Amino acid sequence: MGDQRVVVEIIAKKKGCMMCDLATAILEEIAPEFEPGILAWEVVDVGSREGVTRHAELGSICGRMPAVPSIVINEYIAFDNIPDMESLTEAVRKASHSNN
After folding, report:
1. I need a surface site. Which of 5, 35, 38, 41 has the fewest CB within 10 A?
2. For 40-57, what is each residue's pLDDT tens digit?
């Protein structure tokens, strides 16, 4: 109760990207631990025009370009790689409880 929505962006190249697939699998695995509507995620595909644009926007917002692959949570670079399940779960939980 009182949890805030958390938006996770996976910065990766979709086509043939094992790390992208891993990050998506981790998010699918941890999603049931959160109330419906709390966790949302998408892949920022740096191999597409839209993805390149969003990657540049995140660079401006975050003060530096997110690495490929990386995880951005609520427009903050949380991981410069794809984390393990426990680390990502904890980061999402912390973000859902933040007052920002």
Report:
1. 35
2. 999 999 999 999 999 999
